Request: fold
Amino acid sequence: MYRTVLFLSLLALGFVGPALASGDPEAGLPDVWVGCPYQDVDPDGNPICLEELPAEDPFDGALARAVATAEAQEPAANCRLKNEVFFWTETNWLRVARGLAANPAPCTEYYISVPPMSNQKTEPRRNQAAQIRALGPQFHALFDIFLADATGWVNWVAENRHRFGSEEETWYQAGVEARRRMALADRDFDVGSGDSWLVNDFNTGTRRDGGTYFGLDLEPWKRANMRALVRGLHEGPADGSLGETRGLAQVAIQFTHQNIPFVDEYKADWKAWLEDEAFWADIAEHVRWIGKEVYADSRHWGTPDTSRNARSRHLQQYFFHVPELAEAGPESVAVARGYLRESFLPLVNGTWAALGPDRFTPLFCCGHGETMLPIERFLAYVTEELFAVRQYAGSHPQGAPAGRLGFTWQPTNNFGVSPAEFVAAQEAIVARIAEAVRWGYREGGASPAGICSPPGSEVDWCAGGREGAFFTDAWRAFESWD
Reply:
């Protein structure tokens, strides 16, 4: 359906060798990338160098505008609903950023996470943050503070524990060290321009305050450690040379998927966590946004004969179960409640095509909500997710999420389509999100209906539903404290 220009964005995973950890910034690079300002690869996967970013949309505008209207962009004169859009990305972060920049919303700030090096998860990638900022003052890069993995920050803490006085101090120093690495000349995260960090993630160990769960050791993620980490990330080096920056902390999807069979147990965990006043007071001081990964499962989307409002309501019950529980809670959760009202955002499912969490071992440990949908159906699905968030914000003007929302981006070719089709699908998803954000959060405020049917368009992107899908009412349990 679309003419696709295969402009692959900085897929450096296969070209960067382990020499990065040695401190030599050019070691292990292909010759063509040595001293290159903008490293890229061609459609055949060969490294190439760009002296500057293309003056035109790298997709020639064909796909980025495939679902957009011809109506001119209006100026940002009165942004009553300030919009902040976040993407956690595992791959193709520049494809995401460029696709959003092809159809920007005037009242929106875009935050794109840049994953660390694949072979050394404590090292930021080179020359990526600047390319995101080059798309305009609305675009900002977030360094993905990847905790797990054998080369992540959990491992750094274990290897450096002997250098510091306590485990918590080591986690604090991990945050400080991450800030130092972000500021290296060839990493170039600029906090003065709005770049920051993203903690990946507060997981079940944070929710349950350490221990083990389903045989997994979650002790490193206990709350005291996470409090120390974000304090170090916020403050940076003691001499103040890098300034302070409050970033984003994600609360992981791990064991919290929409189709978990143990919702009551999970709710009890959250009740105890919300009552930890010291934790939430620390987080409020050091973390600007907290995002809950709520990757809805299309098998619970509802069938095509259900109403849009019914589908939206069931998505909202899952997306906002954390702030709903806090709002229903007693005075003992007042600190958490106040912080969530100002800082909470849902991170919804932008990943196509994802297997369900019930395919993994242990069950529900990993993955996204299932999105094994034809791409046309997924475009409707992601639109209705965004509609649900925007509609909820409009009906809760004094609390979360206001103009904040986020997406996960981990494209997986589980349908085995051709490379060209897979790239085209990714571009279409970003284009649909960009257009929906523009008309749902535009200048002067906007109706959620613009997300579904932009002005001048005859297409209704919210004619959704999936054959065989069914609603779950399990998440209504979070609407009351008892």
Remarks:
- The CA atoms of residues 234 and 311 lie 39 Å apart.
- Confidence is low (pLDDT under 50) at residues 1-28, 53-76.
